[in-house]
Amino acid sequence: MQANIMINLGNKSQVPIISFSATSPFLSSLRSQYFIRATHDDSSQVKAISAIVQAFGWREAVPIYVENEFGEGVIPYLSDALEEVNARIPYRSVIPLGATNEEIRRELYNLTSMQCRVFIVHMDMDLGSRVFNMAKEIGMMGEGYVWIITDGMTNLWSMIDRFDMDSMHGVLGIRIYVPKSEKVNTFKVRWKRKFLQDNIVNAEFDIFGLWAYDATFALAMAVEKLGTTNFSFDASNVSKSARTDLESFGVSQAGPKLIHALTSTRFKGLSGEFGFINGQLESPVFQIINVNGNGEKVIGFWTSKYGLVKRPDFTNVMGYSTSKANLGTIIWPGDTHSPPKGWEIPTQGKRLKIGVPVKTGFSEFVKLPPDTHPNSKVIPMGYCTDVFNAVMEAMPYAVPHDFYAFGNADHEMAGTYNDLIDQVVYGNYDAVVGDISIIVNRSFYIDFTLPFTESGVVMVVPIRDGSNKNAWVFLKPLTWDLWVTSGGFFVFIGFVIWVLEHRINEDFRGPPSHHVGTSFWFSFSTMVFAHRERVVSNPARFVVLIWCFVVLILTQSYTASLASLLTIQRLQPTVTDVYELLRRKESVGYHKGSFVKEIVQGLKFDPSKLRTFNSVEELDELFTNGSANVICIYHRSLLVYWYMHSQPFN
Fold it and tell me: Which residues form the Ionotropic glutamate receptor C-terminal domain (predicted)?
């Protein structure tokens, strides 16, 4: 309101009005050419805030702002900036400037009942400190919460005391970046020395002090440019009936020239490059800070050109980035390093109760500590809980939950899987996690996730080994007909070679016994390609060529068949159909508590023939030491476990 009055006076008298603290975006709508801001519009920081929101994938954010023009001015720009990164504002928390602690506490309790856990605070330091003190008191500075403060608080960081700083542990803040320079260090020394001379101990200065100094310097440079210009006022248009001094102002003769000189002034001041664009300072570089303990840590920077960057020198920067990898290590509220989800199911202090079956066997699916007490909180392990935890981790919001053991005093499951599901129907559990099969009658009462293991019911039966283990197994690769045929061809080929060679080849001459022996030896030696007798005639060579090819095929086929007989087990199931079990009145085993019991009973098996098992060891005992011819029927996932963790049974 003060700025509005001054801007109207300056516009009427054509006197430049310079402000280094009026940051409300509402002032930009006045369109006064005589109003210059030696500061930045609050709306210039909303892009930096939206970049942080986008970097961590938050989809909602609640602004908490003071109920005046300073607080309300930035909200439309913040809403637009968040909408550009696919985030929205589900609620606006407005706190009056003179709000009591009870009013602040009541509004914060209202925020805890909502889903969003990302809060953007835009107010002055005094009110902001009270908000954070109340937030810490009611537990809103714990794990899962995200707090981001605008430069309305961070620019006045020197005003905060140690107690207020401690209540803001884990908060992220946006602040104008002031480059370090020797000029700034020299000014700090002069500043403190001047105030010490006046017996003022607290001589800290902030960004507003730097802007005020640079604005004064810019005005002096502009006046020097004008030289001896007439700075008088033309009072000819002043009404003689003016009742106040404010109405008796004239029109400045040097105002238009002075405003032109000011807007064209460029120099490097204490706050950095100083120059006016559209009546205010150029777009700044923002520091992103993280409140840690009793101090702060700079974790990154943001610029309108490059987005989030690690260093303000912009080396090795390629284009605009909103990657959280460009930010340093952040300590979040609750003293954790894991980024909050930013969203939680409001449970009004109630955490979801997840039931877990107590299993003594097949612990790879669900495993609980051995000393688990009935209906007590547990930290389960196993494949099913690993899948559940991975899904919860991948969700864009947090769901507080605890696991409870569904067991009895004997460290066994307190009923069947159907009983466990009934606990959800009765409201004792909000959900259950475990190796629970999806079947029709269960889906009438509860909802299941998509299956992540193969479903189905299978039988595990003893096997019959069809392998030949007698001493004459080497005769099995060939049939008797093939053995006789092969032998006949060996004799025939020997006779043909003798007929073609004995008259012209000395190797096949001699006594009759030599003729017979040499012919048969030559024929049989071709089986291992060890024949040494020469073959002279071309017809004999052709016969030998064809015969060697036939022998090669015969020997290779024989070798492959024999190797298969000796190495591959020919296992045959003793039972191939469940109805065969009914006819033979075999004993049948099933997993204790499983829905398979209902299937077996539905098939009209004799109850005296039913056996239960609860672990791999009990299953092995049924097959080896239990009733004869036990057949086990159970869920396919347990069958996979059996094949992976046990030896084949006979």
Answer: 351-625
Cα–Cα distance between 3 and 249 in angstroms, integer? 18
> % helix / strand / coil in the chain, to the nearest 5?
40, 20, 40
**CA–CA gap between residue 123 and residue 69 (Å, rounded):** 11
Closest CA to 361 of 333, 382, 343: 382
| Contact call for residues 250 and 235 (beta carbons, < 8 A) | yes
DSSP string, 399-450: --EEEEEEB-TTSSBSS-HHHHHHHHHHTS-SEE-SS----HHHHTTS--PP
**For 571, which DSSP code?**
E
Domain locations in the chain as residue ranges = 2-39+180-281, 42-177+285-326, 352-453, 473-567, 573-645
What is the number of helices (H) and of strands (E) in the chain? 21, 26
- Which pLDDT band holds residue 201 (cuts at 50, 70, 90)? low
DSSP structure class, residue 244: S
Mean pLDDT for 108-124 is 90
Q: Yes or no: is domain 352-453 CATH 3.40.190.10?
A: yes
Cβ–Cβ under 8 Å, residues 336 and 143? yes
- Angle of helix 207-226 relative to helix 255-263, nearest 10 degrees? 120
CB atoms within 10 A of CB 290: 21
SS3 label, residue 630? strand
Q: Examine domains 42-177+285-326 and 352-453 and report if their fold is the same.
A: no
CATH topology of domain 42-177+285-326: Rossmann fold (3.40.50)
State the average pLDDT over residues 549-568: 79
3-state secondary structure of 589: strand
pLDDT at 644: 35
Q: What is the C-alpha separation between 274 and 179, in angstroms, rounded?
A: 12
pLDDT band, residue 642 (cuts 50/70/90): very low
- In contact, 461 and 622? CB cutoff 8 Å: no
CA 625 distance to own-chain centroid? 50
**What is the pLDDT of the chain when averaged over all its residues?**
80
Task: For residue range 78-90, list pLDDT tens digits in order.
Answer: 999 999 999 999 9
Residue with tokens 């239960």, as numbered in its chain: 612
Is domain 2-39+180-281 annotated with CATH 3.40.1280.10?
A: no
- Name the residue among 403, 467, 12 with its Cα closest to residue 237: 12
DSSP 599: H
Per-residue pLDDT tens for 410-449? 777 888 888 888 999 888 999 999 888 888 888 888 888 8
Displacement of CA 25 from its chain's centroid (Å):
37
CB 302 within 8 A of CB 51: yes
CA dihedral 608, 609, 614, 618 (to 10 degrees): 120
**Token pair of 578 as six digits:** 């469940």
Q: What's the rounded Cα separation, in Å, for the pair 64 and 107?
A: 10
